[in-house]
Design brief:
Blueprint: E1 3-13, E2 16-25, E3 35-39, E4 53-57, E5 60-64, E6 74-82, E7 97-100, E8 106-111, E9 142-152, E10 156-160, H1 166-180, E11 189-196, E12 205-210, E13 213-218, H2 221-234, E14 236-238, E15 243-253, E16 259-265, H3 273-285, E17 290-294, E18 296-297, E19 300-301, H4 310-313, E20 317-318, E21 335-336, H5 341-353, E22 357-364, H6 369-374, H7 376-379, H8 404-420, E23 425-429, H9 442-451, H10 456-473, E24 477-481, E25 495-498, H11 502-511, E26 514-517, H12 520-523, H13 546-551, E27 568-575, H14 583-590, H15 593-602, H16 610-626
Parallel strand pairs: 1-8, 10-11, 11-13, 16-17, 16-27, 17-22, 22-23, 23-24, 24-25, 25-26, 26-27
Antiparallel strand pairs: 1-2, 2-6, 3-5, 3-7, 4-5, 7-8, 9-15, 12-13, 12-15, 14-15, 18-19, 20-21
Helix pairs in contact: 1-2, 3-5, 8-10
Bound molecules: ligand TNX.
Ligand TNX binds near residues 481, 499, 526 and 578.
Keywords: Glycosidase, Hydrolase
Protein name: beta-N-acetylhexosaminidase
Enzyme class: hydrolase
Length: about 650
């Protein structure tokens, strides 16, 4: 490559850091009128730039120093500062860069790892443990093992009492084939029996393995899925004999929380339908029952809305020649994609077969840049002179409650979304509405006056209440991030997802809202997993080691019989994907921390024990290996594979 940039932290300031950026021209040709484009997650203070000009839209920065050509075999140097916390991770550096020259040529620029000033390198010690006798995660409510094993062969069959549960039995058969290449024959022994047991609770199951075979008892499709997931984890495979061994046991199990979820952000990075299904299938193995799908954000609109095709024709794509600027990765090309309504139906059916409901998130009124840029005639308030900057550095990403177009947009999007997703919930976002929005919009100010509102939070609440009423009329309950109750306009039927702190969850529960816990400090899987600069991830909420993920105990400050606890529907983990651009990285960030969180979501608090979990995990990792999951090994700290960083994600070709 003919160009390279080096970025070094040169000074740590009381609030922020100062950087030196060197752009090298390693070629034999000088370039005049160049522009350097690079992806950088933090806001660069304009006034701090030593020379040249810099614009920043989200993470995309464009630097030019027109007075100085970039001479052959020479370099140019600039300094700038940020006002947020100092860098500790290499992932904080510049992610990608390219140069454009006056002839319009695009040249790739290689990026050296950032030189950090204060890198802490203290990998946490994970205790070495003896491999446990069984590898069940989450740990069942009660499990008794007896001596002896039952053998399953390719002549084994699964029988169901009731055809209603056939699809759970099919899942088990498919998984056995996928994992162990054992295809059951249509003529064989009836070794696994799904027995309907109406006395059990919906998600409860029993699993009995003895000389007579395997019996799973349950009363619902999801109960049979959980029984099947446990059975799979109990299997030991003898490849030579093509036989699966299952230890004799009696297991009786049911979940602690009714809501056990995982959120994936498909807006910042786009995952193919196959990638999403692969993850959902894995979630089923850990007895999760909810997939929260973050489908819209500033950097991409991913759900087809038939009445507003611009949302995906324009808003699903970013790049040098697109309406939306490139962000984060793949910045010198067209990147993106969307899920057609057919794709979504396919995902929903796939998830339902695995006992998982899919909840869509349409994030409003902030985080709406992709929608606004796709539908400016509908969503831009031409008289709004407000000046604001969102957390992710946009000044044009918020819907206006003062114009009709916003309400028409909401009607259409919520109607189509509600029709498409059978779950009785729609998540409406409501997070991170920037300070300063709507202040200089005559229509918003007039609306505030009409209703006697004194703050923008009330105006936000006004819009969210509209969305809530609309969703109610469509038979859906509204879910929102913790900011959804700001301005006190939405009803107590709204479910609050707390992400900033546990305290917020307690406050919301005290106010009478049902809550789902998703505190950034312990459940955000985009956080780095250890105190090492090379760990991929971010650290604004925390560094989340496996142990911290495991030890998270929802609302532990409250006594176990505090009635407020009844308001907790459950918990979920989340993967935001600004820096998660490919499948290996996805796996690396999710596994095995999700297993730790799944144990808390499902298992009894009294049975939680980190060493015992590690012992089971040690035995369990082979099951992840068998499926090609690129997990982070807690003992060897194995990184994602070398090539992962350089691998281009081909997903964006899916819809071209
Ligand atoms: C906060 S959590 C966000 C997301 C970012 C994430 C990055 C929440 C409701 N908003 O928009 O992707 O931090 O960690």
């Amino acid at each position: 490559m003919d160009f390279r940039i080096d970025l070094a932290v040169i000074e740590i300031l009381p609030k922020g850091s100062r950087f030196g950026l060197t752009l090298h021209n390693l070629s034999e040709k000088s370039v005049a009128n160049w522009q350097l484009n690079f992806a950088f997650d933090r806001h660069i203070e304009q006034a701090s730039l030593s020379h040249g000009t810099l614009t920043q839209v989200g993470s995309l920065c464009t630097l030019s120093i027109n007075s100085t050509p970039l001479y052959a075999n020479n370099h140019c140097y600039v300094e700038f500062a940020i006002a947020t916390s100092p860098f500790k991770l290499l992932s904080d550096g510049i992610k990608e860069a390219y140069l454009t020259t006056d002839s319009g040529t695009q040249c790739t620029v290689s990026v050296s790892p950032i030189v950090l000033k204060e890198a802490i390198d203290q990998p946490s010690e994970v205790p070495s443990v003896k491999t446990a006798r069984h590898k069940l995660i989450p740990e069942p409510m009660s499990a008794n093992f007896n001596s002896g094993v039952y053998e399953l062969t390719r002549y084994s069959q699964i029988t169901v009492d009731n055809t209603e549960f056939q699809s759970a039995a099919n899942w088990l058969a498919e998984e056995i084939t996928r994992l162990f290449s054992i295809e059951s024959k249509s003529i064989g022994q009836q070794d696994i029996h799904f027995r309907h047991s109406p006395v059990l609770d919906t998600e409860e199951y029993k699993l009995i393995v003895n000389d007579n075979g395997v019996v799973i008892e349950s009363t619902s499709q999801s109960g049979f899925i959980y029984g099947a997931a446990t059975l799979i984890q109990l299997m030991d495979f003898d490849a030579a004999r093509h036989t699966l061994y299952i230890p004799f046991c009696q297991i009786h199990d049911k979940p602690r929380f009714a809501y056990r979820g995982m959120m994936i952000d498909s807006a910042r990075s786009f995952q193919s339908v196959e990638d999403i299904k692969r993850l959902i299938n894995l979630f089923a193995h850990y007895k999760l029952n909810t997939f929260h799908w973050h489908l819209t954000d500033d950097e991409g609109w991913r759900v087809e809305i038939k009445a507003l095709p611009e949302l995906t024709e324009i808003g699903a794509w970013r790049g040098p020649n697109e309406t939306l600027e490139a962000q984060f990765h793949h910045i010198n090309q067209r990147y993106g994609g969307f899920y057609s309504q057919e794709d979504i139906k396919d995902v929903i059916a796939f998830a339902a077969q695995r006992g998982i409901q899919v909840i869509p998130e349409i994030d409003i009124p902030g985080h709406c840049r992709a929608a606004i840029k796709s539908l400016p005639h509908m969503l831009v308030d031409p008289d709004d002179r407000s000046i604001y900057r969102s957390v992710q550095h946009y000044n044009d990403n918020t819907l206006s409650p003062g114009i009709d177009g916003t309400y028409r947009f909401l009607d259409i999007v919520l109607e189509e979304t509600s029709e498409l997703f059978p779950a009785p919930y729609v998540h409406i976002g409501a997070d991170e509405v920037p300070v300063g929005v709507w202040e200089k919009s005559p229509s918003c100010q007039a609306l505030m006056e009409t209703h006697g509102y004194s703050s923008s939070k009330e105006l936000q609440g006004h819009l969210l209440r509209y969305a809530e009423d609309k969703l109610k009329s469509l038979g859906k309950r509204m879910l929102g991030w913790e900011e959804a109750h700001f301005g006190h306009k939405v009803s107590k039927d709204t479910v609050i997802y707390s992400w900033l702190s546990e305290e917020a969850a307690i406050n919301c529960a005290k106010l009478g809202y049902d809550v789902v816990l998703q505190p950034g400090q312990t459940t955000y899987l985009d956080m780095a997993q250890d105190h090492c600069p090379t760990e991929p991830g971010v650290d604004w909420a925390n560094v989340i080691t496996l142990e911290q993920a495991y030890l998270y105990e929802p609302l532990s400050e409250l006594s176990s019989n505090d009635p407020i606890k009844k308001r907790i529907l459950g918990m979920q983990a989340a993967l935001w994907t600004e820096i998660v651009s490919h499948q290996q990285r996805l796996d690396y960030m999710i596994f095995p921390r999700l297993l730790a969180l799944a144990e808390t979501a499902w298992g009894l608090e009294s049975r939680k024990n980190y060493s015992a979990f590690l012992a089971r995990l040690k035995a369990h990792l082979s099951l992840l290996q068998r499926q090609g999951v690129h997990y982070r090994d807690p003992w060897t700290h194995t990184e994602e594979p070398e090539n992962a960083h350089h691998q281009t994600n081909n997903n964006n070709n899916d819809k071209i």
